[in-house]
Amino acid sequence: MHAHLPDTTLFYDIDGAEYDPGSGELLRKPVLVVLHGGLGFDHAYLKPGLGPLRDHAQLLYVDLRGQGRSGRPPLETCTLEQMADDVAALCASLGLPHVHVFGHSAGGFVALHLALRHPALVAGLILCGSSPTVRPIIEDEAAEPAPSLASRAGPKTLAVAGRVFGGDITEESVDDFFREVGPFYAAPAHMHVPPRLTALSTVDVAMMRHFMTAIAPGYDLRPRLGGIAARTLVIVGREDWVCPPRASRALARGIPGARLVVLDDAGHFTFSETPAAFLDAVVGFLPPAATV
After folding, report:
1. DSSP string spanning 83-129?
2. 227 and 233 in contact (C-beta within 8 Å)?
3. If you write DSSP's letter for every residue of 223-244 in order, what string do you get?
4. Do residues 217 and 210 touch, judged by C-beta distance below 8 A?
């Protein structure tokens, strides 16, 4: 389905009924807006892991502007702030005054902006494998050294990663990246998971390049985290070197009342690496269905 915004279209997909008959009563489940990472991906890689949440919430998956099946407006309009405003406009068009928001990785960057720019809309925030900044976080460095790709991968893999992280983002370099580096996004026991998930999604190389070179370098919300009023759950895999645990600790420290859950034996794709522990954390955070 597509929502028509002033300068683009936004693709969304709904999974799960809004109403649950319950035990003889009609119950309304919370709406969970799901924002993918990348940037440059679409929402499809999230569905296997988040799908079971349909029993507890109505899932609203969104392809952010310039990605997936959403429209391709000029790249200069593709900012984190505008993506957040797009999601707010989508919710308004669907008659949703209050939602919970799940943001994975860079989708968490958008979710944070949404909570700051539209506080009345965001009743709850789930930040999964995300970060308040792309700059180095030195807090906790001595007590908890960050996981690293260099400690696990060989020279060839590190060279491929360095090419993309250095801004040389082409169809060829991205293909090499997913083949060589992709498996390392998971914990050692789950390296088969990332290729299976990323195969489900389309990748927009132009958007990935735009994110890496124009959006990410200026991203730092640490000074503004105290202004987030929404109930917040922060989830991270202990083996995540992309957005390491210390980044999630910074989120939990900065957002008033935030709860932090660190999942053992998981990397960047907690929802599909350790699904039972992930679902326990999220279901425990979501409000129960309410009587209509």
Report:
1. HHHHHHHHHHHTT-SSEEEEEETHHHHHHHHHHHH-TTTEEEEEEES
2. no
3. GGGGG--SEEEEEEETT-SSS-
4. no
Identify the helix (H) or strand (E) that includes residue 15. strand 9-15
pTM: 0.95
Q: For residue 276, what are its two tokens?
A: 């039972």
Could you read off the pLDDT of 222-239 as tens digits, one per residue?
A: 999 999 999 999 999 999
Partners of residue 3 on adjacent β-strands: 10
For the record, the structure tokens of 288 come out as 């129960």
2-4/58-63 β-pairing? unpaired
Return d(Cα 157, Cα 255) in angstroms, integer.
36
> Structural domains in the chain?
2-144+203-291 (3.40.50.1820)
**C-alpha distances out from residue 151 to 145, 146, 288, Å:** 12, 10, 42
What DSSP state is assigned to residue 263?
E
- Assign 136 a pLDDT band (cuts: 50, 70, 90): confident
Dist. CA 117–CA 124, nearest whole Å: 14
